Amino acid sequence: MAPNRFFRYLRSRLTSGNDRGTSLVEYTILWAMMGTSVVAGIETTAGEFDAKFNEASVGISHGAAAEDGDEAEEEAEEESDEEAEEDSASGGAEADDDAGGDPSGSGAAGGTTSSDSDNADSDNAADESDDEDGSTSGHDSSDDDESDDDESEDDDADNTDDESADADNAEEATVTVKQLSNRSANKAKIQLQFRDSDGKKIKDLTVTVRFTYADGSFEETIVETGSSGKVNVTRKKMTDEMWDVTATIESAVKDGVDYRPDEDTFVLT
Q1: In angstroms, what CA-CA distances link 132 with 129, 136, 144, 229, 250?
Q2: E strand or H helix at 133, and its extent?
């Protein structure tokens, strides 16, 4: 082959735009970059976890050391207290020995005997004075009974005043009742609307309603009326053993005034 033809062949091969094998190279470079990223991420995460574990272990070790130090201090304090008690006990025993060996102890004992006789005389005198006081107190028992009667009368007067105050704090009210129970849906519901003696709807009235069920159980609900003066009390998931339901208005209070109506018990079926 002539040199000119070879160079033309080589030039054609180099400039022909043949991309054979380039995809494999690109995929190889891509996978290498992905592997490098994964390895770097794992190393970073592992370093962070390692630091966290080190902090936790250091904290635990410090806490255990602190507990050991506290226990050691408590033991040292207990030992010092025991030593102090032993020293005080030994000191008291030495003092007793000194007192027993003192020749003047017999004289002290004789003095004690004379004081005991004086104490006996004083005790007899005290007993005699107590007897005299007892005889005198027997005459005063009637006075005590009279004072007890006066106190009971005062208590009755106070109770009467409380009842009159409760009556003054009560207001006449009427209630409109709607039974919204649905036995087939296992739901007991009642709606109450409160009005005062002028027929105005009572707002912000705190009402306590008790549901008493046929099986003997009961529950209380506390609700407040809105601008319409209405409250709704509902009990869901009723069973056949719980019917019928007795709804009772336990209280209806606003600003210390009782608005409970005369008719306050209703049966829900």
Answers
A1: 5, 6, 18, 73, 59
A2: helix 105-168
pLDDT digits (tens, 9 = 90+) for 185-206: 889 999 999 998 888 999 999 9
Q: CA–CA separation, 246 vs 118, rounded Å?
A: 79
- Domain layout of the chain by residue ranges: 173-258
What is the identity of the amino acid at 181?
S
CA distance readout (Å), 231 to 122, 147, 198, 216, 221? 78, 52, 20, 25, 11
CATH 2.60.40.1930 is the classification of domain 173-258: yes
Question: pTM surpassing 0.90?
Answer: no
Backbone φ and ψ of 150, nearest 5°: -65, -40
Q: What integer best gives the mean pLDDT of the chain?
A: 74
Q: Would you give the DSSP letter of residue 203? A: P
The H or E element spanning position 188 is strand 188-196
